[in-house]
Amino acid sequence: MLQTLQRSKTPSGAAYIDRGGGGEILVLIHGVGMRIEAWGPQIEQLSMRHRIIAVDLPGHGFSAPLKGRPDLSNFVTWFGAVIDELELGAVNIAGHSMGALIATGMAATAPERLSRIALLNGIYKRTTEARQAVEARADEIVTGAFDRDAPLGRWFAPDEVNSDAYRLVRNLLQQVDASGYAAAYRAFATGDTFYCDCWPAVTSPALFLTGDGDANSTPEMAQDMAKATQNGRAAIIKGHRHMVNLTAPDEVTAALANWLTWTA
Question: What region holds the AB hydrolase-1 domain (predicted)?
Fold first, then answer.
């Protein structure tokens, strides 16, 4: 059974949690089809030393739907407004998948608002074949007649189907609002080139983490982004795929805790 975390809401309708209180602020942004609970292990551990704020994407969890076109720039604008509403100032941002694209947009458009940035299973300059495949999935999803279990085969290895992580993610996919999912997936499918050339100008400490078995957010993508960034490092978690923060929670949480000590 899914245990729902108690949320607050910003004036514009973004749902969030605010945990901990000591140390620097870390804002967590989840991926398409997920919600705050997908960060459970990281919230539990990192809130012991840091103030953790996690948000539901528009049309996900308990957040109001996105206003305007479903493109990445509007999600980035939405996220910047959430930071403003919460009066957070400069923050550390960690985004997973779609959340990583939003974090990239913040690095490109408002670098002064970042202390550090971490991309988990981030996308960077898809191949033509990969872009066509993800855009085809976006076209299917917008019809409303999509297979909610289909992502599980990409996100998890066969030996993980009986794991708690698999059950949690499947549960979240079954519950996600269809229109909110479609809007976010469209932005995800078309957003990998929006801000991809920003990295040479980024000076904040930057972590690029993925699983070595993630065929869509590949180790090569993480390594290329790290090389392009002035203060970037790649971390590849062996034996894991797209939901690496849930399937390898201790390794990922340790990597984020270490990242939170980096200085420019």
Answer: 26-254
Average pLDDT score over residue span 123-134:
94
pLDDT tier, 69 (very low <50, low <70, confident <90, very high otherwise): confident
Instruction: Please give the order of strands across the beta sheet that includes 114-120.
Output: 8-9, 15-19, 51-55, 25-29, 91-96, 114-120, 206-211, 232-237
What percent helix, strand, coil does the chain show, rounded to 5?
45, 15, 40
Residue 2 has pLDDT above 80, yes or no: no
Spatial distance between the Cα atoms of 74 and 202, rounded to a whole number of angstroms = 21
On whether the CB atoms of residues 121 and 97 are closer than 8 A, the answer is yes
Ordered domains of the chain (ranges, CATH): 8-259 (3.40.50.1820)
Tell me the C-alpha distance between 77 and 102, whole Å. Answer: 9
When pLDDT is averaged across residues 17-30 and rounded to a whole number, the result is 94
- In SS3 terms, 184-247 reads as HHHHHHHCCCCCCCCHHHCCCCEEEEEECCCCCCCHHHHHHHHHHCCCEEEEEECCCCCCHHHH
CB-CB contact of 260 with 26 (8 Å) = yes
Active site residues: 97, 121, 242
What confidence score (pLDDT) does residue 142 get?
87
Could you tell me the end-to-end alpha-carbon distance of the chain, in angstroms, rounded to an integer? 42
Cβ atoms of 112 and 126 within 8 Å: the answer is no
Percent of the chain with pLDDT over 90: 93
